[in-house]
Design a protein that fits this description.
The complex is a heterodimer of chains A (166) and B (188). Chain A has helices spanning 4-23, 30-45, 53-57, 64-82, 93-99, 103-124, 130-137, 141-161. With 166 residues, chain A is an all-alpha fold. Chain B is globular, with a radius of gyration of 19 Å. With 188 residues, chain B is mostly helical. Chain B contains nine helices and no strands. Classes of the chains: A mainly alpha (166), B mainly alpha (188). At the A-B interface, helix 1, helix 2, helix 3, helix 4 and helix 5 of A face helix 1, helix 2, helix 3, helix 4 and helix 5 of B.
Chain lengths: 166, 188
C-alpha cells in the first residue's frame, strides 16, 4: 500500500497542533480570500468598501491566514520544483479527457467554480481545511455537518458534470 | 510556559512569520500528498481515487489526539464555529458545487498555483476572490434572512452526547482508523 497520503495527512495533523499551540488558531484558508478580496476592492473602489458589515468582522488586512495561504503557494512550489513535478498546465488531464483541450472553456469553468466556492465557503463559515480538518478535529457539530454536505454536494455535482449519471 | 505562549501569541510580526512558515509546511504536505492536482480531487468526488479522504482523515485523527491532549494540559483552547441549517447546510451545498466545478478547494488551489496550474491561478483564485466579495456585499441581507435559520442546538458532538470531549477522542480515532483500514482492504 501507498503510505504517502497518510504521512502527509499526519503532517497536516501535527501542523494543526502547532497552529493551536503557537498561534491559538485553527488552520483555515477561506477567510484569507475574503480579506484579500476586501483589500483589492478597497484599492479599486476606495475606503467606502470598509463600511460593509462583513468587513467589520473580517477586516481586509494581511493577517496570519493570508500569510498561511501565501505560504501554501511557496511550499507547494518548492516541493513541486524539488520533486520535478512543477509544470505549467492550463487544462488538467481529466478535464481534457472529458471536455476537450480548450483553455478558455477550462478558465470559464474554473472561474464559475471559484465564484461558487468563494460564496459557499463564507456562507458556511469555513472550507475543507477550516471546517473539514480543523473543525472536525475539535468535534464541532457545524464542521461535521459542513464536511458531510461539502462532499455530498461535491460528489453529486461531479457525477452530474462528468455524466456518470445521465 | 503559559506566559511565554501568551507573549508569543500577542507578538504580531512573529505571528505573521509563523503563519507563513506553517503555510509553507502545509503546502509541502498538500503537494507531497498529491491533493494539489485537479485530477486527484475530481477522482475523489467521482469516487475513483480516495487520496483526499485518506489525507483528511489521517490529519483529523492525528490532530484530534494532539489538540485534546494540549487542551487537557491547559496549553490550547478550542475555536468552535456555531452553525445552522441556513448557514452550514445551504453554504455547504454551494461550496460542494464549487468544489466539483473548480476541482480544487481554497487551500489546495493555492498549492495548485504553486505547482504551476494556471487554471487554478487565472480561474480558481480569481473566482474565489470574486465570490468572497459577492458574499460580503450580500451579507447583511443573508444575515437577516437565511443564515440564522435552524440554529444547531449545541456547538460540539460531545455536548450532544452529554460526555466530556476526552471520552469521544479515542472512539473517534479508532473509528477513523477502521474507515482507513476498510478503504485499504477494499483496495480503494
Amino acid at each position: 500500500m501507498d503510505w504517502t497520503p497518510y504521512i502527509a495527512g499526519a503532517g497536516i495533523g501535527v501542523l494543526s497542533w502547532l497552529a493551536f499551540l503557537l498561534s491559538d488558531r485553527p488552520l483555515g484558508c477561506s477567510t484569507a480570500y475574503a480579506r484579500a478580496s476586501g483589500m483589492i476592492e478597497r484599492a479599486v473602489r476606495g475606503k467606502a468598501v470598509l463600511d460593509r458589515a462583513y468587513y467589520k468582522q473580517f477586516a481586509p488586512r494581511i493577517d496570519w491566514e493570508v500569510m498561511l495561504v501565501l505560504g501554501i503557494v511557496i511550499g507547494a512550489f518548492a516541493t513541486a520544483f524539488l520533486t520535478g513535478e512543477f509544470a505549467l498546465v492550463w487544462v488538467p488531464p481529466t478535464f481534457e479527457a472529458a471536455f476537450g483541450p480548450s483553455v478558455p472553456l477550462r478558465i470559464v469553468v474554473a472561474l464559475a467554480g471559484g465564484v461558487l466556492m468563494g460564496i459557499g465557503a463564507r456562507w458556511a463559515g469555513g472550507c475543507t481545511s477550516g471546517h473539514g480538518i480543523s473543525g472536525t478535529l475539535q468535534m464541532a457539530l457545524s464542521s461535521w455537518v459542513a464536511v458531510v454536505v461539502f462532499f455530498a454536494s461535491g460528489i453529486l455535482s461531479a457525477f452530474l458534470l462528468y455524466g456518470v449519471w445521465p | 510556559m503559559k506566559d511565554a505562549l501568551t507573549r508569543l501569541r500577542r507578538n504580531a510580526p512573529v505571528q505573521l512569520s509563523l503563519g507563513l512558515a506553517l503555510g509553507v509546511a502545509f503546502g509541502a504536505c498538500l503537494q507531497v500528498a498529491g491533493v494539489t492536482r485537479y485530477d486527484v480531487i475530481i477522482g475523489q468526488l467521482l469516487l475513483t481515487d480516495f487520496t483526499v479522504v485518506k489525507v483528511m482523515l489521517s490529519a483529523v485523527a492525528v490532530g484530534t489526539l494532539g489538540v485534546h491532549l494540549m487542551r487537557a494540559a491547559g496549553l490550547a483552547d478550542l475555536h468552535i464555529k456555531p452553525g445552522s441549517v441556513g448557514a452550514t447546510v445551504v453554504g455547504g451545498v454551494i461550496f460542494g458545487a464549487g468544489f466539483a466545478v473548480l476541482g480544487y478547494c481554497p487551500g489546495t488551489v493555492a498549492g495548485a498555483v504553486g505547482s504551476g496550474a494556471l487554471d487554478a491561478l487565472v480561474g480558481g483564485v480569481t473566482g474565489i476572490l470574486i465570490g468572497a466579495g459577492i458574499f460580503s456585499a450580500l451579507y447583511p441581507r443573508l444575515e437577516a434572512s437565511v443564515l440564522g435559520l435552524g440554529r444547531f442546538p449545541t456547538a460540539t458532538i460531545p455536548e450532544i452526547l452529554h460526555v466530556n470531549p476526552r471520552v469521544v477522542v479515542v472512539p473517534l480515532v479508532l473509528l477513523i482508523a477502521a474507515v482507513l483500514y476498510g478503504l485499504e482492504y477494499l483496495g480503494l
